[in-house]
Amino acid sequence: MDPAAPDLGYPFPGATRPADARWDPVAPGWRVHEETVLVGRGDDAWTAAGALMRWAVKTRSGFAVHPPGPVTTGADLVLVAAVGPLRVREPIRVVAVVDTPDRKGFAYGTRPGHPVSGEEAFVVHRDAEGAVWLTLRSLTRPGTGIWRPLFPLLLVAQRVYRRRYRRALVHPTRGPVDRISRR
């Protein structure tokens, strides 16, 4: 599937630019979010953070990923969030993947039926001192249909899940997550 195909729920696939260390979004009418948190230090932390490329940031945060498998550009998937007895289905497409010696990650875009419209990126990167960081980026606006009036509640849920994402790749013995920046 072409990651830029017109059946995405927003007009600019790849806008969160996971391959780029710097992000200066210009998206009038969209909620912009970026934050970077420390997940660990050294080769063990870097190796463990590679689980990101197998959806660990999502599965360790309470989502199911269908179909399971490694992150692949152009793949259409459905993320399923359990909210009490309800299951919320989130159709997505992976629109960008980066996999270099010091930077790994991906961005996915929403497809019709997703509760919100936009794109989200998850990137782990290693600096010269061996610190391993997770960067979260997103562009969000209300979805369509029954989801549109629920957008304020969805923003609350988004904040809850971001907190989970920040912890998802941290090794349990490495201590608390340190936030370095937030937009």
From TrEMBL:
Alphabetical list of InterPro entries matching this protein: DUF1990, UCP010260
Pfam families reported for this sequence: DUF1990
Q: Which residues form the DUF1990 domain?
A: 24-168
Report what the protein is called.
Answer: Unannotated protein
Which species is this record about?
freshwater metagenome
